[in-house]
Amino acid sequence: MSSPRTPLPWPLVALFATGYLAPYLLPTTVGRLDAGLPLTATQAGATGSALLLGSASAGFLLAARVERFGARTLARAGLAFAVLGYGGAALTTTVPAVVAGAVLGGFGSGTVTAVAASGIAAGRNPHRASTAGLLCVSALAGALYLTVPHLGPGHGLPLAAIALTALAMWPVTGRLPARSPAVPAARAERARLPHPRCGLLLAAAMPFWSLAQNALWGVSGRIGLTQAGLTEAAVGVVFAAALGAGLLGVLGAGALGARLGRAVPIGGGTVLIAGCIALSASATTLPAFATGEIAWNALYPVVLSYVIGLAASLDPRGRWAVLVGSASSLGTAAGPLTGSLLSERAGFFGMGLVLAAGLLAIAVPMTAVAVRTGRRRTAAADVPVADIPVVEIPVDTPAVPAERAAYGTAGPRQAAAAPGSR
After folding, report:
1. What's the pLDDT tens digit per position in 332-347?
2. Cα torsion angle, 38, 105, 29, 361, sign
3. Is 289 helix (H, G, I), strand (E, B) or coil?
4. Using 50, 70 and 90 to split pLDDT, how confident is the model at 366?
5. Which CATH number describes the domain made up of 10-182+195-380?
6. DSSP readout, 345-375?
7. For residue 376, what pLDDT band results from cuts at 50, 70 and 90?
8. What are the TM regions of this chain, as residue ranges (predicted)?
């Protein structure tokens, strides 16, 4: 009989989706900052980059400290920062206050993502849980792309939507552990990261992988409005359809699981994404723009889910997952500004060629890590049980010697037992 599937950790899945919502809404956020505030396109892109940089900094600061502070405490702190930051930025039109609120909200999103990624990586099926998280955020972002254009102008609507989502997640934190009882905090911080070469190579590659994705994502709205000549409502429909295709891609990745390993989805998927970016950046009509965006968004969450699973496999405590995610956030943070600068100097078509070439180059080390990790897992599965070494586990509590009088002799009691014994 087949064993039942492990139930999904829905509190962590919900927090994962909440943390990723801000990057998913980046095009409409940057576009409305540009249209609703006295900012140039480059300045609006820089504000989006500042938001995502705050998210990345939270991940780097908390990568090895989730167990120490407790998942519930950190998740509530992150949600509070997100509500205050995004909510404050939505309610003001003063540019410095908007930027400060965006950075604070980004730090909150990064904190929530760190908690979710750490918990998911420590679970029994991190790929399935992360796939469910991407499924949820794709559905939520798609609904918002269909709704926001009909709610009126102004820069604050996307930011308010992220703040309200964070507020709605507050009751979920009650189902998280206050502290992890498994590993003492002092030992948890001293423990070395396993597989440092693969982890560092993956962490070094992810900023460039994410930068290429989000450089296009940050200016996709402008490509649709200016180069393809679409209205904001039409662009919103394209983005919603693209995120709907992302839902199908995530469902496909969940159904596929580990049948193809991780190297083929990561390497082959990245090559296909490079082609989609070049197509989308060169689009001058609705069919071309929609094809590039939909195909790209269908592939992106698939590859990302396998990358998250790859990072989780490097450390069961989730530290590499958080570090790789934070490194990805660095590239995500630089994406909007990079896209704005490249499009201003080389045009959208030239920007697409540069980003596609960079993705093709970065696919090589990412695939190498996936191949090496896959070989290690296969080799570990082939080790006989008798050959597995015995590991001594140190115990912090010293043993207390027992008193001799606490034990009696084995066997039936003698007839001449002491008075009062039975």
Report:
1. 778 878 888 899 889 9
2. positive
3. helix
4. very high
5. 1.20.1250.20
6. HHHHHHHHHHHHHHHHHHHHHHHHHHHHHHH
7. low
8. 7-26, 46-66, 73-91, 97-120, 132-151, 157-178, 199-217, 237-256, 263-282, 294-314, 321-342, 348-371
Residue with tokens 């900052």: 33
Q: What percent of the chain has pLDDT over 90?
A: 32
Q: What angle is formed at CA 397 by the lines to CA 393 and CA 402, rounded to 5 degrees?
A: 110
The residue to which tokens 């409502």 are assigned: 233
As given in the structure block, the two tokens for residue 359 are 């993705």
pLDDT band at residue 89 under the 50/70/90 scheme: very high
**Predicted local confidence at residue 422, as pLDDT:** 43
Distance CA 136, CA 370 (A): 26
Taking residues 384-410, what's their average pLDDT?
45
Q: How many helices (H) and strands (E) does the chain have?
A: 15, 0
Segment 167-183, tens digit of pLDDT: 999 999 988 887 655 44
Residue 136 exposed, middle or buried by CB count within 10 Å (0-12, 13-18, 19+): buried
Distance from C-alpha of 216 to C-alpha of 222, rounded to nearest angstrom: 10
Nearest to 326 by CA among 116, 41, 86: 116
Can you say whether residue 13 is alpha, beta or left, with left for phi > 0 and alpha for psi between -120 and 50 degrees?
alpha
Which two tokens mark 153? 């102008």
Domain boundaries, the chain: 10-182+195-380
Mean pLDDT of the chain: 81
Strands (E), 93-201: none
Contact call for residues 261 and 42 (beta carbons, < 8 A): no
Give me 88's structure tokens. 């404050």
Question: CB count, 10 Å around CB of 98?
Answer: 23
Q: Residue length, the chain?
A: 422
Query: 114: which 2 tokens?
Result: 């760190």
Contact call for residues 315 and 195 (beta carbons, < 8 A): yes
Q: Residue 272 and residue 111: Cα distance in Å, rounded?
A: 31
